[in-house]
Each structure stands twice: as structure tokens, then as C-alpha cells.
Amino acid sequence: MAMRIPFIAGNWKMFKTKAEAKAFAEEFVKLYKDTDVKTAICAPFTDLDTLKEAFAGTSIGVGAQNVHFEDSGAFTGEVSLPMLKEIGVDYCVIGHSERRQYFNETDETVNKKLKKIFADSDIVPILCVGENLDQREAGKAQEIVENQIKADLKDIAAADAAKMVIAYEPIWAIGTGKTATPEQAGEMCAAIRGIVEKLYDENTCDQVTIQYGGSVKPENATEIMNMPEIDGALVGGASLVPEKFMGIINF
Ligand code: 13P
Questions:
Q1: Which residues lie across from 93 on neighbouring strands?
Q2: Taking Cα atoms as reference points, which of 221, 165, 11, 164 lies closest to residue 97?
């Protein structure tokens, strides 16, 4: 079985100006000690350069939160993969539920973005999937997640799928303080690994990193990370505060 390295990533969403990002990074680098846990901050585009510079010489990664699937063109307001590559970002969040909900992101655009990243870069995508409350209450959570993953990974090669990170983020647990129980989170992450095995093979599903996201904080990180199929966390609110984010990394 593949040894999966725990991976704790922050998703800053639309928080922190450049100056605020710099202040965070200076404090965080002081607290940070190399551990067996991989870590990264996925930040607004305007912060990426600042974070790359501040984290230089450390093992802390930097991620974007979106990318366009074309190299260039008349796409006002968008940022391309060559632009991210030039900054040297390590990760890119794709298909976050907030983008699906407010910015018209669909499984089709998610699939195009993943293909673009794999075709032209070594950037590791963090693909977000998850059901909303109605879907969970209707007993459809696994079906929804399975359909998302199938559509999002359409025509993506096993070797690429093996490199990626899938974040299970139940929409009802995001920013609500309402965490999925470790059992609920663990159950879905195990199901996701099963879906990847069905789409590809055992080797691929052994390698793919599966995170849980939704109200993760220092107080609940240990029990979430102790679930056998959960390899990491995608952290929103708690990643904005150096001590809290460090507390999760030291779960
Ligand atoms: P919170 O940790 O703030 O609930 O956000 C989770 C999330 O959406 C991370 O991508």
C-alpha cells in the first residue's frame, strides 16, 4: 500500500490583502517547524507572489484557488495556468463549492481545468466535491459525490489521478461551525477511495490524497485525521490565524 503523506492545506477564500498575507507569513514561518505533514496555503491571486517569497526556503507550499482552462484570451477577470506557473504555485483548488454555487463552475469546466493543469504543469490540483444539506438528508450524499467525481475526472489518466488531492467538503459543514462527525467524514472519504478504485484501479486509489474540509479547527483535527481514509484537511476560517493553522498541522 502506498504511504500517503498527511496534507493540511489552508484555503483563505477572499480574505487577506497583500500586507495581511505578509504579516501572516512572517508569523507563521516563525511558528512553523518541518514535520512529516505537508502543508500549503491557497490564497487570493494577489497574495501568491508575496507568499512564495515569504515561504522561500521552507517546505510550506502555495496554492491558487482557481485557474482558467485556456492559456490566454478575451476572458476578463480570469487568470491562466502560464500566469500561475510563472509565480511558481504548487497547488490549485478546483471546483470549490463556493465557485460552483456563485460563479457558475460546473463539472464540465472543472474537468477542463483539471485536464489543462495535468497537460501543462506539475501543479497539484485540489479537487473539491461534496453534497448540500438537502442531498444528505435525502440519503443521496454518496450518489452526488460519485457523480461529481466521475464527471470531474472524465478522460483523466490514472497516472494523473493518482497525483491529485480530492477534498470532501460537505457544503452544510463549510463555515457553519457544524463539522461532519469523524465517522461521516471517514465514511465518505472511504467511499471516494472506492469510487477512484472503480474508475481506475487499486494502485491509483491507494495513492490519491483525500482531505476532509468543513469547520476543521485545532480542537477537532486529531479525531478527523485519525480516520483511516482521511489523509488531510482543507481548512477555511482556521487557516487565517497562524496559531490555529499551526495547531491543526500539529494535530
Ligand atoms: P471552513 O473551514 O471555514 O468551514 O471552510 C472550509 C472550506 O471551504 C475549505 O475549502
A1: 126
A2: 11
pLDDT at 1 over 80: no
pLDDT tens string 45-89? 999 999 999 999 999 999 999 999 999 999 999 999 999 999 999
What's the rounded Cα separation, in Å, for the pair 188 and 50? 36
Average pLDDT rounded to a whole number, residues 139-145: 97
Q: DSSP characters for 159-198?
A: HHHTT-EEEE--GGGSSSS-PPPHHHHHHHHHHHHHHHHH
Contact 107, 151 (CB under 8 A): yes
DSSP state of 4: P
Query: What pTM value is reported for the model?
Result: 0.97
Phi, psi for residue 26 in degrees, rounded to 5: -65, -40
Measured from the CA of 216, which atom of ligand 1 is nearest? 2
Report the pocket of ligand 1 as residue ranges, CB < 6 Å: 11, 96, 169, 174-175, 213-216, 234-238
Q: Confirm if 221 and 211 have CB atoms less than 8 A apart.
A: no
